[in-house]
Amino acid sequence: MRGIAIGLVLYFHCFSPVLKGPLYTLLYPMILPGRSGWTGVDLFFVLSGFLIGGILLDAREATNYFRVFYVRRFFRIVPAYMVLLIVYYTICTVAAVADIRQLQWDEAWAVPWYVPLFLFITSGL
Prior knowledge:
69% helix; 0% strand
């Protein structure tokens, strides 16, 4: 189900807005389902909450209830987050040094390092 939710969001953001003009008219029946891709976000958050709640309810009798839960979450989230940060700042650095305008974002260095971490953790991944 989470795969379907992610697929809906990707379809909504990647394919639906790209098509314009005569191609849009021709492929409209394929675009129409993509217009409801925003529902994938809701579905993803509901499923994540359900799964996390289930994990917490299953382990409620354990003595180290929260410790085990948060240690697992830490080791699931932080390595992927570090890879994301390294790739992001590497692209920003290469774009700045090589003067590649397509890869330069005005606010690339203005976002504090902890903001993406907060967003990543609260997304329920």
